[in-house]
Structures are given as C-alpha cells and as structure tokens.
Design brief:
It is a single chain. This protein is of the alpha/beta class and about 240 residues long. It contains ten helices and ten strands. It is globular, with a radius of gyration of 17 Å.
C-alpha cells in the first residue's frame, strides 16, 4: 500500500501550472472503470456522488455503506483511489485509517466543518496530525478547508487554516468553493498542493492550474452530468414506446 500511496503522492508534484492533476469522481464501480479506461491516472470519490448512488442525501450515508462503496470502486480499478469520507464519521484516527486502508484507498479527504459549522482549526489540525501519525506514508491526506463553503469571504481565513493543516501533516489542502481570483494568493501563501474544483461559469481546468491549483476534482458534478444524460435517454425511450 505504501507503494500505491507513493505513486499517488508523486502525481501531485513536479507538474506544470497549466497541467493540474485531474481526478474524476466515480460514484460506483462502473463509473470508476469508465474513468480508468479514459486514461485518468487516479480517481477521487465524491461523498455526495456516492451518497446519491446509494439513495442518500449528501452527508447522510452510514459509514459502513460509504466504506463498502469505496471498496467496490477501489476493487474495480488498478489506478489509485482517494476516498472522501466526509468528517470521518466520528471514528478515532486509528480506526478511521484502518477502515480507509481496508477499503483499498490510498488517499483520504477530511472536512473541517460539521452540520454547517466550522470546527476549531487547531483542534482539527490536532486530529489531522493523529491521522498522519496512524497512517504514516500509507495515506495521502487531503484536508478540506470549508471557510468559503460556510459563507466566508476573507481568503486569509482559508490561508490560516490551510497552513495549520499542512503543518499537521496534510499532503494537500482543499479550499472548497474558493473564488478563482483568490487562488494566486493561496498559492503564494500555502506550501504544498492545492485542490480546487470548477465552479459554474468559472475558469476551465487548465486556467485553474495556471491560477494556482495543483489538482482539480469535481465533487458530484460528473454524476449530475451523467444523470442528465440518463434522463434524456429515458425520455427518448418513453416517447418512442
């Protein structure tokens, strides 16, 4: 597992600004295989997309079902898979790390808010440090920074949290919903990889990279596009019957 995590970690480094690492978000084994067949070198599950595929609202997936879904995805492909496990489901760091690794993932995404409220950043950094200590090099830790998601507008708040998380051992930080115009500041102030996601009407992937994003993920966006296509096909079938 250390080797697979090392491969995944290496994908985040030495990249040209216009060539960020693009990680599509599979929601089940079939979509994971489709993304692998398309040539993507790694995948990152979106918790909201997996929830939708299992019939749950975002944030309502039971831990056992989430880990089982991640395991099916990881088992279906040969490329590294990172798992979004939301806030960690209240699991102690040792158990959380063990369950992520048992599912076959080499990376983990952890949020710094609960029920719409930002967590104390130092307490969350301490938890990330415990996760890092338990995982060693076997997991790539992506620390989500929820300041913009929770209505914040000052990029310095995101910078302060991100720097604490990097110091605690996070491999990457994810200021979710960061306005693209703030990416250059974050890039200048934060050591290590930065995860960004395309916003509706915002810059494309390459431009996000030039602005400062090391990697680009899509949350449940690809699932939503796929389901739009499914609905269109269903409507065509219904109208032709």
């Amino acid at each position: 597992m250390t080797g697979a995590a090392g491969v995944f970690r290496a994908l985040h480094h030495g990249r040209a600004p216009e060539d960020p690492l693009v990680l599509p978000g599979p929601w089940d084994a079939a979509s994971a295989r489709a993304f692998e067949e398309a040539g993507f070198p790694a995948l990152a599950t979106p918790s909201a997309g997996v929830a939708a595929s299992l019939g749950y609202e975002d944030g309502a997936t039971p831990a056992d079902e989430m880990f089982a879904a991640v395991a099916r995805i990881a088992r279906a492909v040969s490329v590294p898979v990172s798992a979004d496990v939301e806030g960690g489901y209240g699991l102690a760091p040792k158990e959380l790390v063990a369950r992520v690794l048992d599912a076959g993932a080499v990376g983990v995404n952890l949020e710094d808010s609960r029920a719409g409220t930002l967590l104390d950043p130092r307490a969350h950094a301490d938890r990330l440090a415990e996760v890092r200590a338990e995982a060693g090099d076997e997991l790539f830790v992506n620390a989500r920074v929820d300041t913009f998601l929770r209505g914040g507008t000052d990029p310095e708040d995101a910078v302060a949290r991100a720097r604490l998380y990097v110091a605690a051992g996070a491999d990457c930080v994810y200021p979710i919903r960061v306005p693209p115009e703030h990416l250059p500041l974050l890039r200048a102030r934060i050591d290590g990889p930065i995860n960004a996601a395309p916003l509706p009407g915002g810059p494309p992937v390459g431009e996000l990279g030039r602005l400062g994003a090391t990697r680009v993920t899509f949350g449940p966006g690809l699932l939503h596009r796929a389901m739009a296509a499914v609905r269109e096909i269903a409507d065509q079938v219904r109208r032709s019957s």
